[in-house]
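Supplementary notes for students who missed Thursday's class. We covered one full example, reproduced here. Read the sequence, then the structure, then the short commentary at the end.
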Amino acid sequence: AKFKGEGGDVFNISNYLRFNIDGEEDGTIAASGSVMSLFGNATECTPYCCWKMFQFCDKLTEAPELPAIKMAEACYGMMFQSCSGLTKTPELPATDLAANCYMHMFSYCDELTDLPDLPATVLPSGCYAYMFLDCSNIKIREGYKPLKNSCYVKYRIPAEGTGEAVDKSMSDMFKNTDCDFGGTPEINKEYYVTHKLTHHELSPATFTRAGNIEYWSCDRCGRLFSEKVTERETAKEITQEKTVIPQINMESITLSQAAYDYDGQAKIPAVSVADTKGNKLTAGADYVVSYANNVNAGTGTAIINFIGNYAGETQKTFTIECDHSYSAPKYLWTDDLSECTAYRICTKDCGTVEKEVATAVKDGNNMKATFTNEAFGTKTMPIPGSEHQHTFADTWSKNSEYHWH
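Structure (token representation):
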């Protein structure tokens, strides 16, 4: 929060409270709670109390609550001016207005499509002046024109009862919006506004729950659309049932082939998936498949990652079988002859290696390793230094066949 001027809660056109909100380049910010909590009074404004409070906050997508019933001079003036990320207005329940209290409140909010109900029946000078200036997405009509997929509901100021207005109380309130009149409405006259849309973001279906597509609902007529309604003639209306993405059926996930004979080529069995309603999912659009250990003999894996309208990951396995023909075993001893490793390789080039490590025991002048795999049998290795077997005479002697003793 950035405070300008001095004097506590005494504000004017030069001294006011303002928020400077900076978001990430693609980020957005939502304000929540009651703005009146800043002033310790939930129902009554003071002059200029919220003047320009969120002006130029283009990352703001949700406005705070504005529960005040009694307005004061320019209290909400320019409050959300040029908040280009704002699509909905907060409720404005005030019935006791003041001069310029809503002046330019939402001007230049070019993504705004919503119009609030305005219950006040006595309109002082400038109270609604320029309130929605240049809000180009607001559609309001003086005459009802039925169109395909149209949603034109009655809108009037005040929302109910008979109103009284002074000159310039609503000057250019809707100037440069999509309206079919000059921009300054008349008190007590019925107009027609279009859809009041709520955006429902995509919620992907998983193995444990259903999801929903991205869609828009109209708070006024209750109809649903698969795209944001901009043109009444081309809006694609859908039913509630069509918004639902059924849950992924885990039991439906199968491979086109569960076993293969080894031939040195990568095995890529096709994956089939359905949802709990029996609808088949589309590879590439709803899920992608990668493979592991799918060339050599053994167990291969298909890894299924769900995308788009679905989320999650699972795996399915398959076998690659080989009628092995092995080379003669080879043996490797440790330096101290305590262990011997036997191995043999499949001659069909399937990458299969049989391997076993055995602990050696002393057997006379040798170390002996016995393997559980019959193909490896038993392997012995002479103990170094045991090649000569000495016999000793009672006296020292030598000849051509024996050492000195």
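Commentary. Residues 240-243 form the longest helix (4 residues). The chain has a mean pLDDT of 87. If anything here is unclear, bring it to office hours.
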